[in-house]
Amino acid sequence: MAKTEIDDKTFITESLMAIKREGMEDLIAFMDDCGFFDAPCSTTYHLCSEGGLAKHTRNVMEIAEKVGVSLYGGKEYNKIHDTVVLSAALHDLGKMGQFDKPLYIPNLLKNGELGSKPYKSNPDLLNIPHEVRSIVIASMFIDLTEEEQFAILYHNGLYGDFKYEISGKETPLYLLIHFADLWCSRIIEIKEEK
Question: Which of 96, 148, 165, 170 is deepest in the core (most CB within 10 A)?
Fold first, then answer.
């Protein structure tokens, strides 16, 4: 029997629900209501299209799991599976926006046409890094461990707002999520767009 491909929303939702953390169902409903599954992942670069954020999230979840199993071995990886899945799934949660405002909006020119960048940052949202938004939003519904918060906050490594704070303080979970995010945004998703 052929394996059927499930869509990104179903993959992310089922993966999060399998973790069995209190409040998860409410978090997923909030993500759906706030447009997480339809949001673009960036303004210009990787997956800057409708549904790009969900596609990127799934990519990061899959790569983090593959790398985690490879580095830890199946038995040891099973001990950290839930925290890896959760951190990978929520690392860019803040990119959906907050306070009923999307983070990215269409980049419409004065003539009503789209600019060369399909999206722009929403000027109606204060400039709070998406990594911080991710932790705040997730924490409204579920308890995150210190290690999960750390991995989500610093997942952009030297490419994020907190690049100077991470140097010398790396953790295995952070490195795993950072690598998966970087690999997806710089390798997998660039190839997909060509």
Answer: 96
